[in-house]
Amino acid sequence: MARSSLLRFWLLSLCALIGIGVTLSLGRWQLSRAAQKEALQRQIHQGKIRETIDTRELLATQNIASELYRPVTLRGTWLAQRTVFLDNREMDEKAGFFVITPLRLEHSEAVILVQRGWAMRNFLDRTALPRIDTPAGTVQVSGRIAPPPSKLFEFKGADTGVIRQNLDLPQFRIETGLRLLDVTVLQTGAPSEGLQRNWPPVNSGVETNYGYAFQWFSLSALIAILYVWFQIVRRFIAPTRRRPPV
């Protein structure tokens, strides 16, 4: 084998090895993401079928993150002046605000953020706030424990106004000085107080991850097959074809 052919052989071998390694790693990563999402789906299901907890039980919980998606009924007082309107949020395929208000829990200084519902925005005046009712005094809120609101892409740093793109819970804790718990409550029930609560079901999208994993593994197999055919099989076939007839 000529020196140039040998160099070409090892160069293509290295490229094929790298390609197979990368595609296999990406396929395994997609499988791990699918496993994580399946675990999340199980956690959501287990949370929904557990008994509803009240304010006292919630405050007594040591690991509050373990109670995610569990039904809850809380009593407390709205901190209306700290209400935040998250922009560009959809419900029933309409754009508007997710309204979030801190709730100071009864007989405690602890506060929990409540995702109260969705309200239509005024597209003619983007600074106008929708009219919602925030009752004074002690209220009872039913819903389920949830992570903080999902974050959307933002072109600048964290907002601090009433209308903002995202709400970062640790930053909001510093901003307000409130003793915020590490979870939120997704308020459920019929529309009220000017808010809709037709929350979409949580879709893990695990099928998409399995589909991507199949594509990456298929590409890895294709690279291996093409390498074996062109770099090994054809090298043995070509000399045989060039042999002169006896």
List the helices and strands and how they pair.
Elements: H1 3-49, H2 55-60, E1 71-78, E2 84-91, E3 94-105, E4 110-120, E5 138-146, E6 163-164, H3 169-176, E7 179-187, H4 206-241
Parallel strand pairs: 2-6, 4-7
Antiparallel strand pairs: 1-3, 1-5, 2-3, 3-4, 5-7
Helix pairs in contact: 1-4
Describe the structure in your own words:
The mean pLDDT is 86. The chain is built from four helices and seven strands; from the N terminus they run ααββββββαβα. A hairpin with a 2-residue loop joins β2 (84-91) and β3. The protein is α+β, with helices and mostly antiparallel strands and 246 residues long. The protein has a five-stranded mixed beta barrel. The longest helix is centred in the N-terminal third of the chain and has 47 residues, at 3-49. The chain is elongated. Helix content is 39%, strand content 24%.
How many beta-strand segments?
A: 7
Globally, the shape reads elongated
The end-to-end span amounts to: 25 Å
- Report strand %: 15-25%
Biggest sheet overview:
5 strands, mixed, barrel
Strand order in the largest sheet: 1-3-4-7-5
The averaged pLDDT comes out at 86
Which secondary-structure class do the elements indicate?
A: alpha+beta
